[in-house]
Design goal:
The protein has 384 residues and is of the alpha+beta class. Helix content is 45%, strand content 14%. The chain folds into 3 domains: 10-122, no CATH class; 130-291; 294-380. The protein contains 15 helices and 11 strands. Strands 6, 7, 8, 9, 10 and 11 form a 6-stranded mixed sheet that branches. A 5-stranded antiparallel sheet has the order 3-2-1-5-4.
C-alpha cells in the first residue's frame, strides 16, 4: 500500500480496489487503503446522517470526524442516495496539484464504499429488535450509515442531540452484578432471562418519570439508555434510586461518544446517595483523565488502594472508610464526626484504625490528599 506514483496506472487503481471489494473490506479500512494508495487523506460523508470522517495515510491510522471536505478538494458523489434521500460523498484531501489518477481513485473508492454500505444495511436489525439496534448505534467501530439507520429505526434523528446513560445491571433483589459491583452474579441462563428485563425497565422507568425518553439495552454488565435531548431536559439528581453515569449531549451520530462518557461517569458513582450516586461526565472535569489513562492493573497494585481493600473486608471496615472520606471532605475531625453523627472519640478511633492500615497520618494535608486519591482509585475499581 505504498503511495501513488508515476509508475501507477488506471489498471492498477482498478485492480487495487477490486481486491478490496473482493475481500469485503469495510468503510474505515477502505478510507485507510485509499489514503495509503494516494498518499493523502481520504474522506467520506454518510448519505443519511451527513457525518463526515477522514483517514490519514497512516497504516495504524483511524478515521476521525471532520466538518467536511476541504474547499479545493476533489469530491465524488456516491451513485445512490441513502434512505433519507441524501447522497453521500467521498474525497481526497490533497494539497497542491491533483494527481492524474485521483479521478480514477475517487470513482473506484465511491463504488467500493457503496458496496460496503449495502452490505452494512443488510445487517441492520429490524425495528422489532430494539436492543440490537441500540448496540449498533453505540458501536463506534460500526459503519456510520448502519449506525444512523439504527437510530432512525429507534425514532431518533441522527443529527439531533442525544444523551446516553449507564447503569449497573441489577439483580431482582437490588444487588449489583458481580462483574461490576461485587454483588451476586447470574448464570448465563438467568442473565438472558427476565431479570435483565426487570433491571433495564427499572432504569428506564426512573428516567421516564423525569420526562425523558428512554430506550435501553443490556451491554455486558451494564445497562445503556438512550434519550433524546430536549430544551426542558431534567437530569437525574442525588435522590435517584440507582447508581447512574450521565453521558454528554451529542448529535445522535456520535452516540458512541456519549456512551463512553457515561461509562466513565458511572465508575465515579457510589452506592450511597449522600456521596454521589449519580455522576455526570460533564461535572468531572480533569478527573476524567484518571479513568481514561490509569489502567486497572496499576490501581490494583497500588499499596494504598490494597490497604483500603483489606480494610473494607474487615468487620466494620467500611464504616472506617466512610469516616476517612468524611474527614477528607470536611477537613476537620469534629465536623466530620458531626456529619457522621458520631461522638468525637468514636470518630477519632476510626481514623486511628485507618492510619494504621494505610501507614500514614490523616492530621497532615499530604496524608489526607493521599487518602483522597486512594479512595478515588477504590471508587474507579468499583468498590466504593
Amino acid at each position: 500500500m505504498r503511495a501513488q506514483g508515476a509508475d501507477r496506472s488506471v489498471l492498477d487503481v482498478v485492480a487495487y480496489f477490486d481486491a478490496l471489494v473482493r475481500d469485503r473490506v469495510q468503510l474505515p479500512e477502505l478510507l485507510r487503503a485509499a489514503a495509503l494508495f494516494t498518499g493523502c487523506p481520504a474522506g467520506f460523508e454518510a448519505p443519511d446522517s451527513g457525518e463526515c470522517v477522514q483517514c490519514d495515510p497512516d497504516p495504524e491510522g483511524d478515521t476521525r470526524p471532520v466538518d467536511g471536505p476541504p474547499a479545493s478538494t476533489g469530491v465524488t458523489p456516491l451513485g445512490r442516495p441513502g434512505t433519507g434521500g441524501r447522497t453521500g460523498r467521498v474525497w481526497l484531501a490533497r494539497d497542491g496539484v491533483p494527481d492524474p489518477l485521483d479521478e480514477a481513485v475517487l470513482e473506484r473508492l465511491a463504488l467500493a464504499v457503496e458496496l460496503a454500505l449495502e452490505r452494512a444495511e443488510r445487517f441492520v436489525p429490524g425495528i422489532d429488535d430494539p436492543e440490537s439496534l441500540i448496540r449498533l448505534a453505540l458501536d463506534s467501530a460500526a459503519d456510520p450509515t448502519a449506525r444512523a439507520r439504527a437510530l432512525v429505526l429507534l425514532g431518533f434523528d441522527p443529527a439531533r442531540p442525544i444523551r446516553v446513560f449507564a447503569a449497573f445491571v441489577e439483580d431482582a433483589d437490588g444487588g449489583e452484578s458481580e462483574a461490576e459491583g461485587g454483588g451476586k452474579g447470574k448464570g448465563k441462563e438467568e442473565s438472558e432471562g427476565g431479570s435483565d428485563t426487570e433491571s433495564g425497565e427499572a432504569v428506564a422507568r426512573e428516567l421516564r418519570a423525569l420526562g425523558l425518553s428512554a430506550h435501553w439495552a443490556r451491554m455486558g454488565p451494564l445497562i445503556a439508555v438512550l434519550s433524546a435531548v430536549t430544551p426542558d431536559e431534567r437530569l437525574p439528581a442525588g435522590d435517584f434510586p440507582l447508581r447512574l453515569g450521565i453521558g454528554t449531549a451529542v448529535p445522535g451520530r456520535l452516540a458512541a461518544d456519549s456512551w463512553a462518557a457515561a461509562r466513565i461517569a458511572l465508575r465515579f458513582s457510589v452506592t450511597d446517595a449522600r456521596r454521589g450516586r449519580v455522576t455526570s461526565w460533564e461535572n468531572l472535569g480533569v478527573l476524567t483523565l484518571l479513568a481514561e489513562h490509569i489502567p486497572d492493573h496499576a490501581i490494583d497494585a497500588q499499596p494504598d488502594v490494597r490497604a483500603l481493600e483489606r480494610l473494607a473486608a474487615q468487620p466494620r471496615g467500611q464504616e472506617v472508610i466512610d469516616s476517612v472520606e468524611a474527614l477528607c471532605r470536611e477537613r476537620s475531625l469534629r465536623r466530620a464526626a458531626a456529619k457522621m453523627h458520631l461522638h468525637h472519640s468514636s470518630m477519632a478511633a476510626r481514623i486511628a484504625r485507618a492510619e494504621t492500615a494505610m501507614n500514614l497520618s490523616l492530621d497532615s494535608e499530604s496524608g489526607r490528599l493521599r487518602a483522597e486519591f486512594a479512595l478515588l482509585m477504590l471508587r474507579l475499581r468499583g468498590h466504593a
